[in-house]
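One-letter codes give the sequence; the fold follows as tokens. Both lines appear below.
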Amino acid sequence: MVFVAFPPDVASTPSDVKLLYQKVDDLIQKHIDSVTSPQTSGDDTSVSSISFVLLVIKTLTEAGKYIEPPILVRILQRLARDMGSSAGSHLRQGQRTDPDSAVSSRQGADLGAVISNLKSVLKLICEKVMVVPDCKRSVTQVLNALLSEKGTDAGMWIEDDFCKPGRVTSSGFISPKEIVSFLQKLSQVDKQSFSHDAHEDWDRKYLQLLYGICADSTYSLPLRQEVFQKVERQFML
């Protein structure tokens, strides 16, 4: 791609290519401002717009284009607000004795789209984001809020690669204490709205994740011991 052939920060990159990069940046910023505006929260169009923006960011990231960390944090914060709104509405709808099927179906679809976008942005948040103190603080706050959310849909936390090696980082930007804390909170996720099969699937994958960490020598021995003592044992009680 163009970003590979002509790196933005190289002096030899032609001026017209740099102008193209600037236009791309301006366009991304315009869409970011649009989808993170409070006025668009819960809007059907904004959900699809966020999906599009995340797809563009993912493509640019894979091509080596650097995306400013605050941009990803703003999208995450917006989606977290939508998640709380959609989940609460979905939970209230489920408590009604005679829910309107069309409304319920639409709310379920909206929630599914928000969850999909949340997973996408979380996968884009990497070390470059987490090494920025303000960004790390914001991401941590959002994750803690999501982990304590009531009536969470199973799709938010169950991933096909949930238990694969590398899903929990051993990099220095997340301390062992933070890793243990997140794992503890993950074990306490509200699963009341999970189906029986989803509940079993979640338990199985969560335990595989814990056992994978405990057996992986790339993590420090004290961390593995702490995960076993403070997380796995408590979860199995």
